[in-house]
Amino acid sequence: xxxxxxxxxxxxxxxxxxxxxxxxxxxxxxxxxxxxxxxxxxxxxxxxxxxxxxxxxxxxxxxxxxxxxxxxxxxxxxxxxxxxxxxxxxxxxxxxxxxxxxxxxxxxxxxxxxxxxxxxxxxxxxxxxxxxxxxxxxxxxxxxxxxxxxxxxxxxxxxxxxxxxxxxxxxxxxxxxxxxxxxxxxxxxxxxxxxxxxxxxxxxxxxxxxxxxxxxxxxxxxxxxxxxxxxxxxxxxxxxxxxxxxxxxxxxxxxxxxxxxxxxxxxxxxxxxxxxxxxxxxxxxxxxxxxxxxxxxxxxxxxxxxxxxxxxxxxxxxxxxxxxxxxxxxxxxxxxxxxxxxxxxxxxxxxxxxxxxxxxxxxxxxxxxxxxxxxxxxxxxxxxxxxxxxxxxxxxxxxxxxxxxxxxxxxxxxxxxxxxxxxxxxxxxxxxxxxxxxxxxxxxxxxxxxxx
Length: 452
Fold this sequence. Notes:
It is found in: Cell membrane. The chain is mostly helical.
């Protein structure tokens, strides 16, 4: 039994396999011929592996940049990192996390089948991270064994369906009404960015129509523009850290050449991500029609944030830069006020900041992308600091979750428990049930909540 659960955990935490299985089921439901089932199943798998390879390449090149910034600007504190906190927590919560993950997937499918929240969450690694957060927080609140798994699975599965629905009206603007949804647990930050964008800017003044003089026309090539931007970032960090320190990272390569190559490799990583996304969408969306029409009518796939990068490629870079600036200012404010110093993690600021920029741009153009991503950067500083006390009871307070949904859910559950104990958790469950059921008795424009 344990081996089966471990196998299921591994399968469900592999987004590439999960996407492939979804595509396979959809194509079978559509009664496609064998060769199309084969290619349509492998396409999303290979596309996501390509996306993951690009993301890993980006992360590996961001790591030395973070070290140079810490050294050059004398910064010490906590760096939010989902992977680090999950790896640490698994020593204590491995079985609970695994069971919550499996339970959450089934709850998501049940919600999609029987309610108007017809969003199927396909970003398996984020489901795994959320399962870990829930096992940590609920465990700290005194839940254990069957109660912990059932409650954790309920929260994971319902939020997997509800979170894409909350901002689907913004996602439709981003994708020009393509039938996909946001399946990433930084979603609240993106929706806030889109809401702010609508207040401060004009969507017609989009980042993608920025006027560039002819002699600078090469900057319309996203890979080249990214490379130039990141080379400047790396050079500033490298100069601040000093040649002697950079030499300890470069394995004998000239410090200046080393930082330039890091910037170039970062751009290549982004290009790989873009190509992987195109492969995923080319096969997944047509195949998903089989699920949407035959198995769970009107269902919509909720996919990773990087899938949205191709819809506003200039906003990706703008979002990253302004989110990082927001993170730095947030860190300074925390330092001045005596709070825990949250060092801006370049990985969440790149992926979440870029996506916030895309969403802000969809409603507010350039100004929306800048301000929306900046606010997202502040949230990535303040919310992890507020989450730390909730996680600290389990002994891994030296790191914390970074993305907005993780921190909000952890803070809400921890705060409710402090004031109301277990009763507060059961009240939240009752409220969620009401939210899920009421739309079934209300006439809406679409059979799927907010999918106009």
